[in-house]
Amino acid sequence: MSFPPRLAVVDLETTGAHLQRDGITEIAIIRIEHGEVVERWETLVNPGRPIPPNLQQFIGITDEMVAGAPSFAEVADKVQALLADTVFVAHNARFDYGFLKNALGALDRRLDLPVMCTIKLSRALFPQHHRHGLDALIERHGLVCEARHRAMGDTDALLQFIRLVEGDVEPDVLRQAVERAMKAPARPPGLPEGAIEGMPDTPGLYLFFASEQPPEGGRPDVPIHIGRAASLRTRVIEHLSAAGRNGKDGELVRQVRRVDWIETAGELSSLLLEIDMLRDRQPLSQRLQRPGDEAFALRVDPARRRPPVLERVRIGATDPGEWVGLYGAFGSRKEADNLLRELAMAYQLCPQRLGIEPVGKGACAAHRQKQCAGVCAGKEKPEAHDTRLLGALESVRLKPWPWPGAVRVVEHQAASGLLACHVFDQGCYLGTTDMPDEASALCAGPRRFDLDRYRMLMRWLAVPANRERIELIPS
């Protein structure tokens, strides 16, 4: 026999996937010794908090059903007795194990067992298949599940899978697969088991915290890192695998004690939310985001005879439809100066006249190095210099809005049911609604330019498939 001699096949139902704030609503355990089932046990559990309505409909466990059920504290002795000296077996096992370990820890009890994940076991034995969720196993292997998404129904299906592979797979192959299925994923040593296994494979943001619990009294909960993902669970597990590495990433990940996440309707929703979250939460490991109203553009003053000939014009929170004679969009003076230095080199422009070098006596340093045409030395007329400057600045003029008016982008995530309709006009974000038919109402709001959102939108629109999703909103 290639399985360990004592197994506890377990399934939990919970009020959600967050280890700290959700609770257990149902437990089923089948204890196996030397291949024989020695006990089957199941119970509803009062989680001490409401069950979300969508979960009540999906799983079939209601608040009324658990109202008279025992609390976890009342069944803790039975749970520990059934798990004693076993290998803990479950589908996405670290999730169930983490919830039980956390619940027992709240009662000052310990849970320290080897864990075997049947998702990993299936992947190891059947790598030719891409799907290894319980529904996929039931369909692929003809398993019988009389009560899907109920604890004992799912546990029975797992027991059938174990029996099937034990009978059909060569012992050496099965032994190696079991070893892989029992290998713990790389993670920070201070992060509780089960903290990330319940994360969905959907788009969203994830937040790393250095504290095990949120601050009391409503104080700000400052993350050490905020990340964005097309698939939350996959990306977070990948990110946390850096715990054993040297360098900045490894040092950051080793501080993680808690992970939270926010699901979104799609990639664009995540991008927009990321900007707001970075500004609002100001994570410790990431550069603070500039306020949206600090952006500025450049304008050439042709009437100015003495340098600098460029003026900086604030464009943050203004309407792009009212801009005249503006070039570029910058978030800092350094950013603008770096661009002007590049243009000066390429077009023999004068750094003094551009305002990136102090005006001194005589010619600028660039002219002495034959990199300036000499407006500062009287060898070129200011009009000629500024005509060349205007031509150079054309390369950074913001591109015209390619649509005749406001547009919308609709995102829908089937797994979570989230829907978002984002509205933009002239590069400005006008807002989001979960009612696409009401998108036109957002067009009545003011257009307020935000550099970070503008740049994000332009990068997103640079992908042809994204541009095809743009829908013009009738005026």
- In this structure, how is the largest beta sheet organized? 5 strands, mixed
Strand content: 15-25%
Q: Provide the residue-averaged pLDDT.
A: 93
Strand order of the largest sheet: 3-2-1-4-5
Structural class: alpha+beta
Give the beta-strand count. 15
| Uncertain spans | none
C-alpha Rg, in Å? 30 Å
Report the principal-axis shape. Answer: elongated
Give short descriptive properties of this protein.
475 residues, 5-stranded mixed sheet, alpha+beta, elongated
Short description:
The protein is of the alpha+beta class and 475 residues long. It has helices at 53-59, 63-67, 72-83, 93-105, 118-125, 134-141, 151-168, 171-181, 232-240, 248-253, 267-281, 333-347, 351-354, 365-368, 382-393, 439-442, 451-461, 464-467; strands at 6-14, 24-33, 36-44, 87-90, 115-117, 204-209, 225-229, 258-263, 296-300, 310-314, 327-330, 407-413, 418-425, 428-433, 471-472. It contains 18 helices and 15 strands.
Can you tell me about this structure?
Helix 5 (118-125) packs across helix 8, helix 6 crosses helix 7 (151-168) and helix 11 (267-281) packs antiparallel against helix 17. Strand 13 and strand 14 form a beta hairpin. The termini are far apart. This protein is an alpha+beta fold and 475 residues long. The protein is elongated and about 100 Å long. The strands form 4 sheets. It has a 5-stranded mixed sheet, sandwiched between helices. Strands 14-13-12-15 form a 4-stranded antiparallel sheet. It has 18 helices and 15 strands.
